[in-house]
Amino acid sequence: xxxxxxxxxxxxxxxxxxxxxxxxxxxxxxxxxxxxxxxxxxxxxxxxxxxxxxxxxxxxxxxxxxxxxxxxxxxxxxxxxxxxxxxxxxxxxxxxxxxxxxxxxxxxxxxxxxxxxxxxxxxxxxxxxxxxxxxxxxxxxxxxxxxxxxxxxxxxxxxxxxxxxxxxxxxxxxxxxxxxxxxxxxxxxxxxxxxxxxxxxxxxxxxxxxxxxxxxxxxxxxxxxxxxxxxxxxxxxxxxxxxxxxxxxxxxxxxxxxxxxxxxxxxxxxxxxxxxxxxxxxxxxxxxxxxxxxxxxxxxxxxxxxxxxxxxxxxxxxxxxxxxxxxxxxxxxxxxxxxxxxxxxxxxxxxxxxxxxxxxxxxxxxxxxxxxxxxxxxxxxxxxxxxxxxxxxxxxxxxxxxxxxxxxxxxxxxxxxxxxxxxxxxxxxxxxxxxxxxxxxxxxxxxxxxxxxxxxxxxxxxxxxxxxxxxxxxxxxxxxxxxxxxxxxxxxxxxxxxxxxxxxxxxxxxxxxxxxxxxxxxxxxxxxxxxxxxxxxxxxxxxxxxxxxxxxxxxxxxxxxxxxxxxxxxxxxxxxxxxxxxxxxxxxxxxxxxxxxxxxxxxxxxxxxxxxxxxxxxxxx
Length: 621
Hints:
Blueprint: H1 3-16, H2 27-35, H3 41-48, H4 52-63, H5 70-82, H6 86-99, H7 104-116, H8 120-133, H9 138-150, H10 154-167, H11 172-184, H12 188-201, H13 206-219, H14 222-234, H15 240-253, H16 257-270, H17 275-287, H18 291-302, H19 309-319, E1 325-335, E2 340-353, E3 356-368, E4 383-397, E5 401-412, E6 420-430, E7 435-445, H20 450-454, E8 458-471, E9 474-485, E10 490-504, E11 508-521, E12 535-539, E13 542-549, E14 552-565, E15 572-583, E16 589-599, E17 609-620
Antiparallel strand pairs: 1-2, 1-17, 2-3, 3-4, 4-5, 5-6, 6-7, 7-8, 8-9, 9-10, 10-11, 11-12, 11-13, 12-14, 13-14, 14-15, 15-16, 16-17
């Protein structure tokens, strides 16, 4: 036996045989008084002579008797510990605590010993026993939280940590641990608050800044997440792969694929299997329309674990664009001019390669207005029907340009034959992460009233648009359109919207903005549509998105404002509001439902409004 073990043995025997008069009153003294008479003198002699292996055998004989006092198990545990038999000593200590559940100190000691040998479940039960005997003991709550976290019982861990931070609010590490457990429970907003409290106590704690960036990213607040990552680096955060992975992923989700790839590419050279970097690069490649490369990154990620929730979501994100689908759309509207429109549309789409698509579609609309109101058919009829069929294609030209083309026929039931060609061409070019340019030209029936349709009014639109997003928090949309009508009229329109991401939470997004619309027609004709010489409208749109789950949510928009045309003496109220529910965005079946109300302008009523609604259903294959 080594000299250290001999010293330990001598001290242990001295404590075991210490006179009762020197022991503190209570559990230890009572245990000694109960235990010593149970031990035969020959076993005590073995202990005195430090013959521990023989004493161990003798104790096992005693422990075979029933019932066995807890203090005897405790003494047996000490004998085992002297011999370096850590596992056996911890198990015996658990038996001792089980026999004396009111001794919370013993239960806590046994819990620690069993945790050290990997018996997490036993350790958890023992610390719960200690807490039952001594509720609210902060040390026990701390141990319980650590064991619960180790065992992935995050609800239990959160309960204990919640009590701890209430009693020790000035400890940054506690708030950090609490935030992590809340995040693992999916309580992202609460986790963000706790991590923010951590940073209020220790602003330069690198691990808290990294956690904060991740939480902000999960909330969709990519601008703030990127700022926190820079703070992490300035604070001395040493995990370069974690920094690069989080930054690349945030930039990708914020529709900045070029910047994202510039981060993840060099980082993957030195960390080729880092899952976060691969994930961020896969999302960025998809956003950059480099689909084959994105699929290759997905395959690498799946080799590390294909069934994890984030991988399942990524797989859907990358593969759903390539899935063929059929969809149906039905919508209806009524307005202050007493125009009712019911329309139905069906589309079948097939992906050729890398999200290049071809599709065929058809639509039917029923438009009606009261006889004699000025918007009925030119022969006085109330109703008119319009049918459309078309083929369309969408394809990538390189990694930055998308071309969409549509060609078909439209026909109304008014007159002998009123078939007209309808078409649409749009070119969208992503000049950079911050700038996207769009050009388009389209021709279709001006299907706003029975009168316009019975006159066969066709509308040709030539448009150009700019989307500028200098950072993930701001977006500017500017568009201009020139419309040429077959009745000799023409119009020019400009729309400008500036939008700011106001709030990002796990269950709620809020945006606010300003929008302006200006348009004017060359002629004021009585052909069944509103054609002012000059119209202007200014709105303050407030958009809310309520997140109900993975791919499920409700959008709410409130956009009050003012309007004016040249016939008005001043500005009047205008605006719109609508709600749209989306269910199954990343699933085979997707449903959208919508309803809206808009207040605008009209030649035919001083109180013009439109109420509309619809359902859209898609089935992917």
